[in-house]
Amino acid sequence: MNLYQKRKVPFELFDVNILKANDARLLEISQTMGLALNLNEMKTIKDYFSKLGRNPTDVELQTLGQTWSEHCYHKTFKGTIVTEKGKIESLFKTYIAKVTKELNLSWCISVFEDNAGIIEFDNGYGIAVKVETHNHPSAIEPFGGAATGVGGVIRDVLGVWADPIACMDVLGFGPLDYDYERLPPGVKHPKYIFRGVVAGIGCYGNNMGIPTVNGAIYFDESYTGNVIVYCGCVGLLPLDKFAKNVKPTNIIVLAGGKTGRDGIHGVTFASAELSEKSEEVSRPAVQIANPIEEEKLKRVLIKIRDCGLGSGVTDLGGGGLSSAVGEMAHRFGLGAIVELDKVPLKYSGLAPWEIYISESQERMLLAVSEKNLRQVLAIFAEEDVEATAIGKFTENHQLKLTYQGVKVAQLDIDFMFQPPKIEKKAKHKKPTLSEPSFPEPKNLTTPLQKILSSPNVASKEQVIRTYDHEVKGNTTLKPLQSQHAGPNDAAVIKPLDNSWKGLVISCGMTPAYGKIDSYWMAASAIDEAVRNNIAVGGRRIALLDNFTWGNPEKPERLGALVEACRACYEVAKGLETPFISGKDSLYNESPLGPVTPTLLITAVGIIPDVRKTVSMELKTAGDPVYILGQTGKELGGSEYYRLLGFIGKTVPKVKTNLAKRTFEALTGTIDSGLVRACHDISEGGLAVAAAEMAFSSDFGLELCLKDVPRTNDVGRNDFVLFSESNSRFLVEVSKQHRRRFEELMKNCNYAQIGIVTDDPFLKIYGLNEEKLVSAELAALRKRWQSGLGGA
Amino acid sequence: MKFNVKIEVMLKPGHSDPEGETTARALRELNYPIESVSVSKVYMVVLEAGSKAEAEKMADGMCRRLLANPTKDDYRFEIRETR
Amino acid sequence: MKKDEVRVCILRVGGTNCDAETKRAFSDLGVNAEIVHFNQLLKKRNLFDYHGLVFPGGFSYGDYVRAGVIWAKSVAAKIGADLEKFVEKERPILGICNGFQVLIEAGLLPAFDGVSEYPEAALAPNIPPGYNCRWVYLKRENNGKCVFTRNMPKNRVIKIPVAHSEGRFLFPKEKENEYLKRLCDNDQVVFQYCHSDGTLAVGEYPANPNGAFNDIAGICNPQGTVFGLMPHPERAFYGWQLPDWTKKGTVPAFGDGKLIFESVVEYITKKF
Question: CA angle, corner A700, sides to A696 and A704, nearest 5?
Answer without folding.
Answer: 115
